[in-house]
Amino acid sequence: MPAPQLATVLGAARRLLRGAEPVPPRAVSPVPADPGERALAAGVPARLVPELGSTLDALSGPLRRQVLEPFSGEEVRWGEAPARQVDGTTCGSAVLVCLAASGDPSLALWLATGRSVGEHVPPELRLARHAFPGAPTATGAARFALVQRALRRLTNRSWPRALGTPPWGAALAARHGRTRFEARLLDDADPSASSLVDQAALALAAGVPVPLYVGGDLSGGIAAAVPRHVVLLVGREAGTFRVYEPGSARVLPVHREVLCGGGPGRPVAALGGWWRVSWILLPRQ
Question: Which among 10, 24, 28, 39 is least buried, having the fewest CB atoms inside 10 angstroms?
Answer without folding.
Answer: 24
